Queue: 3 jobs
Job 1
Amino acid sequence: MADPEIKSYEPHHESQSAAVTESRPVKAVLMAIALAFLAIFLLLPLIVVFHEALAKGVGAYTEALSSPDTRSAIRLTLLVAAISVPLNVVFGISAAWAIAKFEFKGKAFLTTLIDLPFSVSPVISGLVYVLLFGAQGLLGTWLKAHGIVILFAVPGIVLATIFVTFPFVARELIPLMQEQGNGDEEAALSLGASGWQAFWYVTLPNVKWGLLYGVLLCNARAMGEFGAVSVVSGHIRGLTNTMPLHVEILYNEYNAVGAFAVASLLAGLALVTLVLKTLLEMRYGAELAATRGH
Amino acid sequence: MEVRVVNVRKEFERFPALHDVSLDIRSGELIALLGPSGSGKTTLLRLIAGLERPTKGAIFFGDEDASQKSIQERNVGFVFQHYALFRHMTVADNIGFGLKVRHGAARPSAQEIRRRALELLDLVQLSGLEKRYPAQLSGGQRQRVALARAMAIEPKVLLLDEPFGALDAQVRRELRRWLREIHDRTGHTTVFVTHDQEEALELADRVVVMSQGRIEQVGTADDIYDTPNSPFVYSFIGESSSLPVKVENGEIWIADRPIGLQAPHAPSGEAVLHFRPHDVELLDGCSGCIAGTVAASRRVAGTRRVELEIGGQRQRVEIELPVDHPAAQKSRVAFRPRRWKLFPAA
């Protein structure tokens, strides 16, 4: 039996017709504006951060980073990310699964709710936690009676961070899962796989790049969050200061080298995230194209 | 494995998709569920598979009531219209998936799984492609991998949902012949869904014609084509023409003229006459015939289709004439259906 030729799946290039192509000077001006904008608002600040951090030499830089308060801030930031990112991965996958694969009442409402942290100012979300858990708050008396400390301590910071980074994983997975539909899972079940096996062998590999992408963004935000954390943290040095909060404190104390040294770490994180994100997008884009060809 | 569907009703959010459907599928049979979209054919297939649960009624696999069993316990091979191959797995891993997810002693060794996968790949004539990924295969190849994957679990029943629906016409015809061969060689009880009557009539031992959540007729291709039991089957399968008529004392009339057809058992009153456009007898004179004015004439392959306007109501019917028949040149044509059926007026 003759097979039709195996199709090759070349990346699709959009061909540009002459009608929508601008003239050379227009192109040059547009590119110059974009590049100038990038240079002034992104590249320049980045250079300044590293320049200021190293202004008094490498010695002062490493010394600034090894002060006990700074190290405690770094540890706390890592701890907060280590707790909030996995929790949001679990939540994000469950929410995306529920929204993409099932029909139920209130689905639109849930989708809107997931977006809420994006539309609310982080400071407001921090304040909500103060109103809820603070001494005069709704649950304050009860918490005090049971000796549970949330506000101005690590639990508060973790809660605020989770809230702010809530949407990242879910938003990434929902459209992906919706596009993929239920077919693969049904096929796995019909072949005898249990629900867990179907999830583990089929669903998760199908969304792995999207998931990784979401985790990356979620992590970057968890480590860099300022507003909400600032409200609930209490700024206790060596105890409840995360890296962004610590930068502010050092800066306010005219400790430029210290402030910029910590800031350079955050900037470094941003750069690493950016590179990984670009790599993922290249990979993830190919994956999506394959999905469409499928 | 013999499958019996007994008085099954299925509702989706109070909307009935199937009304009280019963069907006996014999062991080793290749059977087609044929109907337009929305007729409930896919719902019936998914109920047999266990992808849906019936609202009422039961489904038996042999003597066993399978209705309350999960899809995993039913051990059916399901082939999806859009293949649903696992895109991150190679062809061999796709085929071996059903064996890999088994537990304990039921799970063959990795070597054995691989051996079985290669064997099945050979059966579906794709040897040598085991390391490919689904995206590197053509549509026809993907569908064959999907079938091999479904057969790997040694299913009691093979269920195929529009298996060739997403393929182009030529590949479809080839795969059709190939599926028949595979079926004859392996002897699986096989149910497939299609909206393509040619596919159903050519491929299946028996065809189940469905419409609006009900089974209209079950029978061989000959039964279905030659003795349709409802106006729906008459018009859905093959070409058909229909005319409103009147029955009086066992004689069929159109307006004020008898047309020379006797229906001794039909009750008197309004009725609809159905016949095949090619199954007519052309007449010269007209005493007891259907006569009409030629309204349009088209050449279709080896024959000529003529559209006639009948009587004062200007009812239009189509009949087929040989290309060189003199009647094709006339403005009036008289004929009488050779084979026909009366149905009560709706």
Job 2
Amino acid sequence: MEVTTSPVREPLITGKKTLHDITYDVCRHVENKPNVAWLLALATAMGVLAIGAYAVWRTLWDGIGMWGNNKTVGWAWDITNFVWWIGIGHAGTLISAILLLFRQKWRNAVNRAAEAMTIFAVLAAAVFPILHTGRPWLTAYWVFPLPNVFGSLWIDFNSPLVWDVFAVSTYFTVSLVFWYIGLIPDFATIRDRAKGIISRTIYGALSFGWNGSAKTWERYEAVSLILAGLATPLVLSVHTIVSMDFATSVIPGWHTTIFPPYFVAGAIFSGFAMVLTLMIITRRLFRLTDYITMQHIELMNIIILVTGSIVGVAYLTELFMAWYSGVEYEQYAFLNRATGPYWWAYGIMMTCNVVSPQLFWIRKIRTSIVATFALSIVVNIGMWFERFVIIVTSLHRDFLPSSWVMFYPTMFDVGTYLFTFGLFFTLFFLFVKFFPVINMAEVKTILKSSSDNTVVHHKIEEDTKVTTH
Amino acid sequence: MEKSRYLVGIFDDEDILIHAVKNMRGAGVRIHECYTPYPVHGLGSALGYRRSRLPIAAFIFGVTGLSLALLMQFYMLGIDWPMIVGGKNYASLPIFIPVGFELTVLISALGMVGVFMVISDLRPYGKAKVFDLRATDDKMVMAIDLSRNKRIDIRRIEDMLTTSGASEIHERSL
């Protein structure tokens, strides 16, 4: 029997897996005792979370004056970090929704972890708008259209910040629902394998009574497709609206129509970098190299290359438009970005975001784990600096030269940022241990078409001979 | 609830299962349900299921979400407390599009998933009706309710299952 694997496409599942192997390889991490590497990773993340929690505590106790923001630079690390985290979240939805609509089979192995990353990144992002209100226990609900003590002076729907509240909370809710719907069948798999009473009860509760009936699968598929259809414009809208926080203002350097597409491309760019950072660690830690293959890594690197190039074009367009507009404030804003006191931040941004992804044109770099891991971190550093450059350099040169200042972060800015890192990684490490880190059901659907297991192919040929009784 | 007797056929492969379903149904056997570890395309139509109408539910919820969002914004800024902000109209449609869009998506997604949960009887601590524990691992399971197939001899059904490619056959009360 000849091998029926496509000679054109690389197999997406290697190691000659059967259906049961997939179940075993994913479930054993949930069922086995945690390994030392995972415990160390979790302890580190929780340590960072604890250090960050002190900074958050001081911010709440003493007020947001603990941060380095000043009268001129009223927005600084807080919104930089917020936009950075929200952007990172975008890759998860792109993989789970847009690649589903495009029928990209390789998404099946990475969508679960990427969606988890989305949800944790949005949670990390939410820390900043909540903290920046100063006393969140008094003010956090003011952003919602609720009747209030002022005789129902409603929130102002003219404000993009209000749109942002709706966009981010919808995004979080829909991503969470989408993720959970996908988890239900896999929780049922763990439940049916569980030996202990505790795990059977917990995963039994989480699996919502799923039994894999054909009718439910049919509905499940319909729900997944519609959710993907809803999440696709949603993910584009979220960063569009985030960019409008800036674009609808009259600050030179912010007031541009290019912002929405430019922000969305940047978000996907940084999101894929973070997915790669996490997946390279996870596949190593849990020995999932047969499911998250070099082929997956290469495809994600190509997306980084494409979106990185879009970001590069956007930077150049901004510079051109600043010159072409003839507006001297706009021209000054961009000249000041490149040559002013924050030239080094601009330089880091340009190097990390425009130059470094171009290395992925080289196949050797694109298919090297070490290079991919290093570049994924470089890209995320670059994308943080992009937001810092946009926000701080535009603000620190006010319309009134007497209020020109520099921004210096305090230890509490750093600490709050660390807090979100701790939060993100603690949640992520808990997720990889206790949840099925790969979508077993969806990977099983592509086993026949996209694995290197010739026995499975062989079997199909044999089996189709048995037709009538 | 009274327990029913079922004949359970276990299959190793999705294609054999679909063939078996077609054969059995062609021979007049009523299949209770099939259980698979992953979505099998073509199984639903082989079993004679109609296309899911959940997309219609999603659309209705979406329209509801959009209407509520627009009504809310027009009422709050246009009627209840009109205010001039930046010289703009009290209430103008373009401004209401972002929140309108977000609430369309939110209500549509939550509503559709809610309907899905209710009609599929999925709820926290829901009790799963499991014929074979391997149905969520690597086996395809076909369950035949014997009380609904009284006209056909049980032996004949077993034979049909075997010739259609079932690797195991059990009888279960559930």
Job 3
Amino acid sequence: MPAVQTLDRVVIRFAGDSGDGMQLTGDRFTSDSAAFGNDISTLPNFPAEIRAPQGTLPGVSSFQIHFANYDIMTPGDRPDVLVAMNPAALKANVADLPRGAVIIADSAEFTKRNLTKVGYAADPLTDGSLADYQLHALDLTGMTVAAVKDFGLSRKDASRAKNMFALGLVSWLYHRPTEGTLSFLTQKFARKPDIRDANITAFKAGHAFGETTETFAVRYEVSPAPMPAGRYRQISGNLATAYGLITGAHKAGLPMFLGAYPITPASDVLHELSKHKRHGVTTFQAEDEIAAVGAALGASFAGHLGVTTSSGPGIALKAETIGLGVMTELPLVVVDVQRAGPSTGMPTKTEQADLLQVMFGRNGEAPIPVLAAQSPADCFDTAIEAVRIAVKYRTPVMMLSDGYLANGAEPWRLPELADIPPIDPAFATEPNATDAKGNAVFHPYRRDEETLARPWAVPGTPGLEHRIGGIEKAKDTGNVSYDPANHEEMIRTRQAKVDGVVRDIPDLVVDDPGVEDGRGAKVLVLGWGSSYGPITAAVRRVRNEGHQVAQTHLRHLNPFPANLGEVLRRYRRVIVPEMNSGQLALLLRAKYLVDVESYSRVRGLPISLSELARDLITVVDEEEGRSAAEIAAELAALRTDEVRQFVGEQHFDLDSTQRSVPIPPSNGTSSEETR
Amino acid sequence: MTTTDPSTRPLYKGLSGVPLAIEPLNRKDFTSDQEVRWCPGCGDYAVLSAFQGLMPELGIKRENTVIVSGIGCSSRFPYYVDSYGMHSIHGRAPAIATGVATSRPDVGVWVVTGDGDALSIGGNHLIHALRRNVNFTILLFNNRIYGLTKGQYSPTSEIGKVTKSTPMGSLDSPFNPVSLALGAEASFVARTIDSDRQHLTEVLRAAADHRGSSFVEIYQNCPIFNDGAFEAVKDKDSAVESIIPLRHGEPIRFGAGGRLGVVRDAATGELAVREVAEVGEDALVVHDAHRTDPTYAFGLSRLTDAGVLQRSPIGIFRDVERPAYDDLAREQVRLAQEGGVGDDALQDLIAGSDTWQVR
């Protein structure tokens, strides 16, 4: 029996060819880990090509999961374990591994032909080049085929189950429960008994192989993470967005109309919503992005909740219609699942570079509220909030997500629908004005005094017939007006309406642990959107080193929380990490005249927590007056993985239970590499 | 990919589902308080007047009428009708109206557009709305010119048109709107003339009665930038030789004393205009707007001059039954809701099948 070692956290990356089922494998491992009670965070990474040539580097698809016995914020920078189903998967991912990481490779795929295809002159499994890692070269394909030989499948079909063999093995290695995957396979392949049985058999065979082989000297345990009591599921950002939109519409008592055009990485929201007609959702796959938002706006005019979902290039096409929504002052929810741009950019890679587009990318003065979700599960709350603002203020609202949130998953404590406040569409039913002759009439632009929202009178309401459109409106009556003073007043009123959303936005809360006893931080890290995870993890690490650093995160990007300016001025230095060239930093500097420092990373990847932690420590050290040599020494000793939340003055000790992989014998390199 | 097999027949008729007015309405009820601001002599006045005359006759509630327009002279139309309306953005009216029609079975939806709006900037939305057969009536005011932007050539202008943007003559071949609509599988396609009040009203009535997309091209004179573009079919003297009248079930015959008619050319299979005296009355094509295959209607549409208009078929080219997109979309929602709706169903959806309990 192998020894059992307890770990706090592990990062595993499953990598293989696009056709190898790595996303499914990762998904299953995630589900089983979540069901076991670990905290989880995942990062799928797949090529834009549907089926790139087999065995090539562009064809590599991977799925990374980070699971832990404490609350984690990111999918992890560097995998502790790499499962490589072919040479391409090894080559594409090995550079990300820290020394001592576990590699499980399917030796059957390391043929001369496959090696040549990715430029390996010699077989890395045998030439000693992987000596710094714990290499397990196993004939996964051969063992799978042997295990399922009784089902009469061709070798090709039989070998397809090798991902389940690998999953079974890794599940054994990390003491994962197996019931979830077994029942999943039973259901998924219910109509194909031979495929079902082959997959189940392969999964069990992988598990049994771990049990019987002597290849693995150690098995690992990661105990459940303490989490607030409740019922949980795992959820991705796109799924949470879809559920949030449905729930928002439900809470408003409005049928939802989604107009959408397929686009990566937003299409899954369309797919998901199209399944939920039962909940009053109509989905319209339009001929283009413009029609998608146009139909949604038409539905809003007709009294439904109009929603459109897209990504950056699609949002650009929708701009004119969003402007029409600003002018007609109708509720409209626009979801931008951002991806790397400009133009087509890198569709499957993440970025936060649409902020200025959604803020300003319309003709004329066309302000709209903008919100951004900070984690996959947070997409649910953010979507509901977007619906609430859109309906209450009769305005298009932009919700920002991104590829990282869209496809990433985390555990989610299920909300009780009853706890979510209702949204009142407050349709107009009566005339609201009197004409010169004393007749009761309807003025479609007579506003609510507090919110400045105009009445929403839907077709079918007698006596409230009215015309709206893109031409400037006369105050109150909504008639066409070219009057200069009226135009200026309307511009200012529309701006004031959006600015007034601030009344519904809670003040920004800063996490600054030392501030209570007068040892507040000098440096504030301010982020928005999906960089919440990496920033929080980096801040924890900085604090873990004994430094003071404050953190806060914006959900509302337009309007900003009322106290934002005051918060910015409270700190000597404000660091703004973003996956763009400094767009939020630009807005903050413009609005508050505070010299915030942009921390810009635009690589199509989430911000690296270890890199950010190092850079933050440098900043904090500078503020604390340390010399360059002292800073260098501290950085050299810095760990790179994700740590627990810093509590009070206690620093967590770095004993072996925190290491996710054992230190390999004698390598005498820097502490960062050995951890 | 699997497919389902929805009905091939419309689920409903015309404006069914739109509530009827309790008290009879009149033209004034459909007249808004806004001053009509088209140029004197503009053909749009006549269309507005015919529309306001027809609406009370349809008997539906005024508040259950929605007019959506794009941008252009004709797109001011909704402001002048006292119903619900949206004057939207250039080319997008069919898309916006698709959202209205799909959301609300109890609303009669009209799209008002022009040749630039519908066929140039909004061409994509037009063909896809027609393909889907969304239940609304599209009035395409075709004046063969850009009026609101002051006189550039349009996608229906004849080749060689000298305008502000084409001082040496335009180069591009025009669209025949009826051919385009038929190519997009429109289930109701007609053409009428602004100045023929009776014919215009008849066609609009038939369009409203049709379930699905009804496409009506209206020859509309722009007295400022393209005056006389339709003179051949409008002038009393020349009209008899220029208008090829389409009446369902009748031989297609025109010209002084019925001297001309439409026949199918034996050699090419194409429809052609011939002297009746030469081909004989029996050779004349009897108009059938209900033919499922659009080939015949398309053939008729090709009898329209592409250059300066001398001759054109007028009437209903095609009127066939096909399910409307919005009816089918609502039917899918209705079927899905048979499973039960409400808080519990939504709570179950959000929970999914794979949950765990933390104590």
